[in-house]
Design brief:
By secondary structure, the chain is α+β, with helices and mostly antiparallel strands. It has 2 domains: 70 residues, 2-Layer Sandwich (Alpha-Beta Plaits); 133 residues, Sulfite Reductase Hemoprotein, domain 1. Helices cover 32% and strands 21% of the residues. α5 packs across α7. The longest helix has 17 residues. The structure holds iron/sulfur cluster. The site of iron/sulfur cluster has 13 residues, from loops. It comes from Geobacter pickeringii. One of its GO terms (molecular function) is metal ion binding. This is Sulfite reductase.
């Protein structure tokens, strides 16, 4: 019986025969040349449908197993981490790059976070979101780690998820003034998670340890 093929980023589809694959497109930000390349490869291999995913990717649907290697070779892109126990996605809103409501540069910070953490192996899957203002278009309060821009800086939320047992994230800290402060905090959260001994999603791991203990350990006080 066929299964997902992790090393090829290939997710078995409902027909139990074909696969979906999705190149990594950090923040969902791309250009026309990349889009043309994806379309050309899709045409070359008879891919009939492309799906814009909730993780800001473009998935090629209904790919034949025999074509997977050739498609990745032609795409010359890394697979998006759509499966496995790792940082699956870093969702980024347009922020001050484009959005008139933005108060923080979510694209600059989000791309740094994506470069550091996308696909990093962890005890369980993890999703992140970075929003440039409190309207939260990157849905930061249902992410394992969510970063929200405010007029004073950045807020960091932890432990959210939008799965079968949805959980709103807890506010961990407010008013971080710089990207470096956010990156340092995320580094401590990831380190804490790796050493927690838990194989649950971050929110449940924090619940097990106790939120106040977690907060003291990652904020240092
Ligand atoms: S979260 Fe705010 S900055 Fe980001 S797209 Fe939405 S309104 Fe714009």
């Amino acid at each position: 019986m066929k299964k997902d093929i992790l090393e090829k980023g290939a997710i078995l589809q409902r027909d139990r025969e074909t696969y979906a694959i999705a190149p990594h497109i950090p923040g969902g930000i791309t250009d026309t040349a990349t889009l043309r390349k994806i379309c050309d490869v899709a045409d070359r291999y008879g891919v009939k449908e492309l799906k814009l995913t909730s993780a800001q990717r473009i998935a090629l649907m209904g790919v034949k197993e025999d074509d997977l290697d050739a498609i990745w070779r032609d795409l010359q892109e890394k697979p998006g981490a759509a499966i496995g126990l790792c940082v699956r996605s870093v969702k980024i809103c347009p922020g001050t790059t484009w959005c008139k409501r933005a108060v923080q540069d979510s694209v600059a910070l989000g791309l740094k976070i994506d470069a550091l953490y996308h696909a990093m192996e962890l005890p369980n899957k993890m999703k992140m979101g970075i929003s440039g203002c409190m309207l939260s278009c990157a849905e930061v309060t249902v992410k394992d780690i969510g970063v929200m821009g405010t007029p004073k800086g950045w807020r960091v939320y932890v432990g959210g998820n939008a799965g079968a047992r949805p959980q709103l994230a807890e506010l961990l800290t407010d008013g971080l003034a710089t990207d470096d402060e956010v990156l340092a905090l995320i580094d401590r959260i990831i380190g804490w998670y790796r050493n927690s001994g838990s194989e649950l999603r971050l929110g449940k791991a924090i619940e097990q340890a106790g939120f106040e203990r977690f907060r003291a350990e990652v904020l240092g006080g």
